[in-house]
Amino acid sequence: xxxxxxxxxxxxxxxxxxxxxxxxxxxxxxxxxxxxxxxxxxxxxxxxxxxxxxxxxxxxxxxxxxxxxxxxxxxxxxxxxxxxxxxxxxxxxxxxxxxxxxxxxxxxxxx
Length: 111
Description:
Distance between the termini: 54 Å
Structural class: mainly alpha
Number of domains: 1
Radius of gyration: 22 Å
Shape: elongated
Order of helices and strands: HHHHHH
CATH architecture: Orthogonal Bundle
Number of helices: 6
Largest sheet: none
Oligomer: single chain
Protein backbone atom coordinates (compact mmCIF):
# COMPACT_ATOMS: atom_id res chain seq x y z
CA UNK A 1 0.00 0.00 0.00
CA UNK A 2 1.27 3.44 -0.96
CA UNK A 3 1.11 6.42 1.40
CA UNK A 4 0.37 9.80 -0.09
CA UNK A 5 0.96 12.97 1.87
CA UNK A 6 -1.22 15.96 1.11
CA UNK A 7 -0.71 19.49 2.34
CA UNK A 8 -3.90 21.26 3.37
CA UNK A 9 -4.21 25.00 3.63
CA UNK A 10 -7.31 25.88 5.73
CA UNK A 11 -7.47 29.33 4.14
CA UNK A 12 -7.93 27.76 0.69
CA UNK A 13 -11.32 25.93 0.56
CA UNK A 14 -10.29 24.11 -2.64
CA UNK A 15 -7.52 22.28 -0.73
CA UNK A 16 -9.86 20.98 1.96
CA UNK A 17 -10.68 17.29 1.78
CA UNK A 18 -14.28 16.09 1.62
CA UNK A 19 -15.83 16.18 5.06
CA UNK A 20 -14.12 19.35 6.19
CA UNK A 21 -16.30 22.30 7.03
CA UNK A 22 -16.41 25.78 5.65
CA UNK A 23 -15.78 27.99 8.70
CA UNK A 24 -17.41 31.02 7.04
CA UNK A 25 -20.52 28.96 6.28
CA UNK A 26 -20.68 27.71 9.86
CA UNK A 27 -20.28 31.22 11.23
CA UNK A 28 -23.07 32.46 8.93
CA UNK A 29 -25.46 29.76 10.16
CA UNK A 30 -27.99 31.04 12.67
CA UNK A 31 -29.53 29.12 15.56
CA UNK A 32 -32.84 29.19 13.65
CA UNK A 33 -31.15 27.51 10.66
CA UNK A 34 -29.73 24.81 12.93
CA UNK A 35 -33.10 24.21 14.63
CA UNK A 36 -34.87 24.05 11.26
CA UNK A 37 -32.35 21.52 9.92
CA UNK A 38 -32.56 19.43 13.10
CA UNK A 39 -36.34 19.31 12.78
CA UNK A 40 -36.07 18.29 9.12
CA UNK A 41 -33.57 15.55 10.02
CA UNK A 42 -35.86 14.25 12.78
CA UNK A 43 -38.86 14.22 10.42
CA UNK A 44 -36.87 12.31 7.80
CA UNK A 45 -35.73 9.73 10.37
CA UNK A 46 -39.32 9.25 11.53
CA UNK A 47 -40.45 8.67 7.94
CA UNK A 48 -37.65 6.12 7.42
CA UNK A 49 -38.77 4.26 10.56
CA UNK A 50 -42.39 4.43 9.39
CA UNK A 51 -41.49 2.98 6.00
CA UNK A 52 -39.47 0.21 7.65
CA UNK A 53 -42.29 -0.75 10.05
CA UNK A 54 -44.83 -0.74 7.21
CA UNK A 55 -42.53 -2.77 4.94
CA UNK A 56 -41.97 -5.44 7.61
CA UNK A 57 -45.72 -5.79 8.23
CA UNK A 58 -46.55 -5.96 4.53
CA UNK A 59 -43.82 -8.54 3.85
CA UNK A 60 -45.47 -10.72 6.48
CA UNK A 61 -48.78 -10.27 4.69
CA UNK A 62 -50.57 -9.09 7.82
CA UNK A 63 -53.06 -6.31 8.40
CA UNK A 64 -52.26 -3.76 11.09
CA UNK A 65 -54.68 -5.52 13.45
CA UNK A 66 -53.21 -8.98 12.79
CA UNK A 67 -49.68 -7.64 13.12
CA UNK A 68 -50.48 -5.94 16.43
CA UNK A 69 -51.90 -9.19 17.81
CA UNK A 70 -48.95 -11.27 16.58
CA UNK A 71 -46.29 -9.05 18.17
CA UNK A 72 -48.40 -8.10 21.22
CA UNK A 73 -48.37 -4.36 20.56
CA UNK A 74 -51.46 -2.17 20.52
CA UNK A 75 -53.07 -1.34 17.19
CA UNK A 76 -52.69 2.36 17.96
CA UNK A 77 -48.93 1.89 18.38
CA UNK A 78 -48.66 0.16 15.00
CA UNK A 79 -50.63 2.99 13.37
CA UNK A 80 -48.45 5.61 15.03
CA UNK A 81 -45.30 3.84 13.78
CA UNK A 82 -46.57 3.58 10.23
CA UNK A 83 -47.83 7.16 10.12
CA UNK A 84 -44.52 8.48 11.41
CA UNK A 85 -46.05 9.91 14.58
CA UNK A 86 -43.90 7.65 16.78
CA UNK A 87 -40.72 5.70 16.21
CA UNK A 88 -40.17 2.15 17.48
CA UNK A 89 -37.40 2.09 20.06
CA UNK A 90 -35.53 -0.48 22.10
CA UNK A 91 -37.04 -3.95 22.05
CA UNK A 92 -39.66 -3.01 19.44
CA UNK A 93 -36.97 -1.84 17.04
CA UNK A 94 -34.99 -5.04 17.62
CA UNK A 95 -38.12 -7.15 17.08
CA UNK A 96 -38.82 -5.41 13.76
CA UNK A 97 -35.25 -6.12 12.63
CA UNK A 98 -35.61 -9.81 13.54
CA UNK A 99 -38.99 -9.98 11.81
CA UNK A 100 -37.37 -8.45 8.73
CA UNK A 101 -34.41 -10.88 8.64
CA UNK A 102 -35.93 -14.12 9.98
CA UNK A 103 -39.74 -13.78 9.95
CA UNK A 104 -40.58 -17.48 10.34
CA UNK A 105 -38.33 -17.93 13.37
CA UNK A 106 -39.51 -14.70 14.99
CA UNK A 107 -43.20 -15.44 14.49
CA UNK A 108 -42.85 -19.02 15.77
CA UNK A 109 -41.04 -17.73 18.87
CA UNK A 110 -43.87 -15.26 19.51
CA UNK A 111 -46.59 -17.93 19.61
